[in-house]
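testing teh design pipeline on a random one, pls ignore if ur not involved
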């Protein structure tokens, strides 16, 4: 098992390894009062793991129930969020009770937002069951729901008390969901370089996979600790996300988050090379790595079509966009681009 300590406003451990679903009750018992717990999960994960987790929690002395919602980004909404809050209230939850977010990134985001806002904040634990959630969204305390205007426009920073990533849950994931998580893994390789880049270039396997997970989480941990509330360096975690989120929106979310991020990273890499912000050699190295893991630019959605949804990007301030640009392997920075220059910068027009 690997463990990564996060020293944020709330200190917690990210535990990574096989069989850790069985450890959820003991971890929570060591951290929290044995009161009520609401296991929030989607209908897919519910069929696989929820009853097992519920039974283990109740056997340990917690009073655990579950809230199940339909899977998919299209259900990361105010309606789902409101229904979770109503369930907490109906079940008589108090400030000493908590939530277990059991599932992927959508579940972690909406359950965490409910925990951040119910009675002005109750504790929650992240139990990711996808690669993307395990190496990215479960760590760092960002919680949110989507609005009609764009992704994650309503949310809060609220750190979990623990992240428990049972790698056995990845065995039930379809191949496309593994690839989705690798999109975020590619982002961390570009951000941090070093051993993580070397592992991905050499090829993931059973011997190095857990180390790959640990390095991704450690990369995010270091950035979060330096800038928990995204006033500066944490913006770097948005590499590929400005164009990626826009792609998700114009495709009506038919392109999943991780693949959209990889697409966005490939586009911004090409744009950085064209604007002489990144060397051709480093650009080719990053693009080749993305292609190695089956990522591509979705040509049916030209970059010009992404300019309109970029207007709702959270990293926009007035008429300026704070855009993450790769300047080398393991070296990225934020570039401010005024709206009147977007078309020229992104499309070369």
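output:
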């Amino acid at each position: 098992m690997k463990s990564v300590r996060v020293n944020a406003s709330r200190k917690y451990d990210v535990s990574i390894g096989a069989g850790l679903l069985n450890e959820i009750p003991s971890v929570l018992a060591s951290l929290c009062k044995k009161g009520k717990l609401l296991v929030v999960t989607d209908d897919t994960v519910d069929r696989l793991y929820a009853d097992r987790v519920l039974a283990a929690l109740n056997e340990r002395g917690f009073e655990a129930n579950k809230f199940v919602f339909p899977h998919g980004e299209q259900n990361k909404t105010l309606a789902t969020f409101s229904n979770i809050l109503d369930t907490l209230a109906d079940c008589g939850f108090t400030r000493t009770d908590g939530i277990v977010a059991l599932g992927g990134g959508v579940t972690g985001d909406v359950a965490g937002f409910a925990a951040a806002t119910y009675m002005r904040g109750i504790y929650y634990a992240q139990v990711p069951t996808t690669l993307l959630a395990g190496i990215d969204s479960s760590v760092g305390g960002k919680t949110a729901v989507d609005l009609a205007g764009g992704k994650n426009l309503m949310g809060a920073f609220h750190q979990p008390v623990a992240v428990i990533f049972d790698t056995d849950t990845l065995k039930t994931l379809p191949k496309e969901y593994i690839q989705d998580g690798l999109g975020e893994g590619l982002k961390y390789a570009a951000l941090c370089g070093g051993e993580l880049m070397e592992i991905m270039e050499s090829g993931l396997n059973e011997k190095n996979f857990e180390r790959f997970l640990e390095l991704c989480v450690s990369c995010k941990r270091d950035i979060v600790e330096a800038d928990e509330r995204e006033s500066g360096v944490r913006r770097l975690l948005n590499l590929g996300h400005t164009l990626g989120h826009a792609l998700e929106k114009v495709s009506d979310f038919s392109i999943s988050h991780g693949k959209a991020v990889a697409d966005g990273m490939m586009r911004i890499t090409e744009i950085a090379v064209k604007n002489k912000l990144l060397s051709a050699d480093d650009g080719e190295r990053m693009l080749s790595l993305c292609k190695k893991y089956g990522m591509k630019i979705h040509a049916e959605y030209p970059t010009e079509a992404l300019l309109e949804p970029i207007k709702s990007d959270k990293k926009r301030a007035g008429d300026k966009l704070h855009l993450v640009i790769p300047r080398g392997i393991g070296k990225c920075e934020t570039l401010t681009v005024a709206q009147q220059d977007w078309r020229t910068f992104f499309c070369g027009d």
